Amino acid sequence: MTWTVTPEPPNSPVAAALWRAYYTEVSDRYYLLHEGRRTDPDELEREIAAHTWDELRPPKGALLVARYSGEPAGSAGVHLLDAETAELKRVFIHESMRGKGGGPVLVRAAEDTARAFGATRMILDTRHDLTEARALYARLGYEETAPHNNDTYAEHWFTKPL
């Protein structure tokens, strides 16, 4: 069983299925923690439809899809913010695929993509309740920093020199 990571158009059927899984999980976690409910399916569909994902298209962005034994299992976005800085966005591995080494493979592929864009550092933000993500970033050498944006849901900010 092996992992592969390849670029994928952000509006492909594979990407759409992964966006839906990603948003369902992070949204449900948020609403269950703060409001004691799951995400309204109509709200989820509106959120997905509202994004064009243009920032994840070349020449300044990419959506990467991780596959485990050929099956789509996760995704990550890379967006070049300026000549030296890329942002890692929406890293996701299906829950059933976690613990099989896909997270590090996916993040390292995103770092390679950022380097290919000319970036010398990667930044990201995440929420407090996404503990698995924060642990992954720390294991891969990301250091927590002061905020670099004012995103409503951002609670932790990280950076790593590439």
From TrEMBL:
InterPro entries the UniProt entry points to: Acyl_CoA_acyltransferase (IPR016181), Bact_Acetyltransf (IPR050832), GNAT_dom (IPR000182)
**What UniProt keywords are attached to this protein's entry?**
Acyltransferase, Transferase
Under the heading Pfam families, the entry gives:
Acetyltransf_1
**All copies of domain N-acetyltransferase, residue ranges:** 16-162
Protein's UniProt keywords contain Disulfide bond: no
Q: Domain of life of the organism in this record? A: Bacteria
A GO MF term: acyltransferase activity, transferring groups other than amino-acyl groups
**Presence of keyword Acyltransferase:** yes
PANTHER family this protein is in?
AMINOALKYLPHOSPHONATE N-ACETYLTRANSFERASE-RELATED (PTHR43877:SF2), AMINOALKYLPHOSPHONATE N-ACETYLTRANSFERASE-RELATED-RELATED (PTHR43877)
Name listed for the protein in its UniProt record: Acetyltransferase
What lineage, starting at the top, does this entry show? Answer: Bacteria, Bacillati, Actinomycetota, Actinomycetes, Kitasatosporales
